[in-house]
Amino acid sequence: MTIHHGVEKEIGEMTVLITGASRGIGAQVALRFAAVGMNIVIHYLNSHEAANEVARKCMDLGAKVYTVTADLRSKEQIMRMKERLDTHGMRPDIVVNNAGISHYGLLSDVDEEQWDEVMDVNLKSVFLCSQAFMPYMIQQRFGRIINVSSVWGISGGSCEAVYSAAKGGVNAFTKALAKELAPSGVTVNAVAPGAVKTDMMSRFTDEELRLLEEEIPVGRLAAPEEISSLVYFLALPESGYITGQIISPNGGWMT
């Protein structure tokens, strides 16, 4: 039995919501939590079939799974998602804010609409989801908010100014909210990966990927499973003294 601030819950009784969980890091996070029997909420926007496939894999591991769609740029849709989860008894003890989009290009070519979309999907969604789901965590005096950021939010990336700014905002938000929620037994951390083998890397040619791997001291890109293991660690009750941290698994690329 795990005891923390008066709340008693077995790991298998906990519920985790992962946004953008139909593929990549989000899908692997869902599978990692499903492997220990947690209740899994798989959020997606348009990738219905992909989300169902992740759900099937999680159920094969014995987890109770619920899939839900919502546009995370909309507070109204997020609150509807929360109401549906409440109805099904799936109140998240853990929220993994993973949904995001990338943008690559010269800042001089970025229009206002592109800026707003990257900010809304990567940063505003973190604000809205945290605000929506943290009251339950505060009430029970236990919770975990884990934001998936990027190494570019720490160091900045050439031709990725908009994306870097959004992820930098996620990092600052993480540090500030961690201080706000710490007295309530809720931790807030960010995982800021380097280059990971996901769909976001598909815009690179094989040669560009080879050159990138040469820049990384460990000589390769990360597997999504390596990122999900860190997310899982931060979610554990035993990790309650870790909060306000931006942890960057990047193979020694950025130190």
**Major sheet attributes:** 7 strands, parallel
CATH fold-type name:
Rossmann fold
- The CATH class label is Alpha Beta
Order of helices and strands: EEEHEHEHEHEHHEHHE
Spans of at least 5 consecutive residues with low confidence: none
Beta-strand content bin: 15-25%
- Helix segment count? 8
Shape category: globular
Q: Give the second-level CATH assignment, the architecture.
A: 3-Layer(aba) Sandwich
Q: Number of folding domains?
A: 1
Q: What does the average pLDDT come to? A: 94
Number of strand elements: 9
Helix content: 40-55%
User: What structural category do the secondary elements indicate?
Assistant: alpha/beta
CATH superfamily: NAD(P)-binding Rossmann-like Domain
Distance between the termini: 38 Å
Please give the radius of gyration in angstroms: 18 Å
Which strand order spans the largest sheet, edge to edge or round the barrel? 5-4-3-6-7-8-9
Summarize the structure.
This is SDR family oxidoreductase. It holds the Pfam family adh_short_C2. 43% of the residues are buried.
SSE inventory with pairings:
Elements lengths: L1 E3 L2 E3 L5 E4 L5 H11 L4 E6 L3 H13 L4 E5 L5 H13 L6 E4 L14 H29 L2 E6 L3 H4 L5 H21 L4 E6 L14 H10 L8 H12 L10 E2 L8
Parallel strand pairs: 3-4, 3-6, 4-5, 6-7, 7-8, 8-9
Antiparallel strand pairs: 1-2
Helix pairs in contact: 1-2, 1-8, 3-4, 4-6
